[in-house]
Design brief:
The longest helix is centred in the middle third of the chain and has 37 residues. The chain has one domain. It is 80% helix and 0% strand. Helix 9 packs across helix 10. The chain contains eleven helices and no strands. It has 282 residues and is mainly alpha-helical.
């Protein structure tokens, strides 16, 4: 007999990694090609979430349903993020950026909306952890998120709005050199990006420690969350190196959606935990 929740969980676990592999491997595709595929995937992903959490969503216990809502707030943004598999990485030249300006605006608008939903979900998770008796790490996670989220929104607005407008103006005026104000803004947001990415990873590490302290998840799983989050935080603030593997790793951990992978995996684990409690109405 097919175990639908287990298959759904496996599929959902692979989603961020498959989307990243397609985006980095295939690059940009035409919207006419990737949008129908993404819509089919979005429906499949929604079905998998329902299959994995049906007992939780229909449980009469409001506490269990709240856990399901928390998980959904962190999982749902990834339905939008997977459209980036068709968009590919951000353009590397001004003509490419100008030609795909609308797609880039959609990309960063989705990231801002998704980041807000994930922050709300983690804040609700922190409250549940506090109510369960966890006294320290949930607060560190909330503080790190509270600092990171405004920086994240500003950074995504820079990429989605400021750069698009700047490149359009540069292209229209055929400017050979970039003005000083543009170079200063680019340097400023390079610092902002490093800070917000590191803070997002540190917040995730704090939530991993909180979940371990509250004994909601297995210690080994929580330690993996913490380890990879701390590695991501370290790589995001490392200075530039000529050592190629480090350059690639630093680039990957700084991709805007990547700091949300660990919270997404935590949410899947949380949904699985809430779904494992029997529905007394059935």
């Amino acid at each position: 007999m097919t175990n639908r929740p287990a298959l759904s969980r496996l599929y959902l676990t692979l989603v961020p990694f498959l989307a990243a592999a397609v985006a980095l491997g295939l690059g940009h595709n035409k919207p006419q090609l990737y949008l129908p595929i993404w819509l089919a995937h979005a429906a499949l992903m929604a079905s998998a979430v329902w299959g994995m959490g049906k007992n939780c969503f229909t449980n009469p216990d409001p506490g269990q349903r709240q856990l399901g809502i928390i998980a959904l707030l962190v999982i749902i943004p990834w339905i939008g993020f997977t459209v980036f598999a068709g968009m590919g990485p951000p353009p590397t030249s001004i003509p490419e950026w100008v030609n795909t300006a609308i797609e880039q605006q959609i990309r960063y608008a989705l990231l801002i909306a998704g980041g807000i939903l994930i922050t709300v979900g983690l804040a609700l998770l922190a409250n549940k952890l506090r109510q369960s008796g966890e006294q320290h790490y949930w607060l560190l996670g909330v503080l790190a998120l509270g600092i990171a989220q405004p920086l994240f929104i500003a950074n995504m607005a820079y990429w989605g709005s400021f750069l698009g407008e700047s490149f359009t103006n540069f292209s229209a005026s055929s400017m050979a050199e970039r003005p000083d104000w543009y170079l200063a803004m680019r340097a400023l947001f390079s610092w902002i990006s490093g800070a917000e990415v590191a803070l997002l990873y540190l917040a995730t590490a704090a939530f991993g420690l909180a979940l371990q302290s509250a004994r909601w998840f297995k210690p080994k799983v929580c330690r993996l969350y913490v380890f990879f989050s701390l590695v991501g935080a370290l790589l995001s603030v490392l200075p530039s190196f000529s050592f190629e593997p480090l350059v690639i790793a630093t680039y990957l951990v700084s991709i805007p959606a990547f700091p949300f992978i660990m919270p997404y995996l935590m949410a899947l684990n949380l949904l699985n935990l809430a779904n494992s409690i029997p529905n007394r109405s059935s």
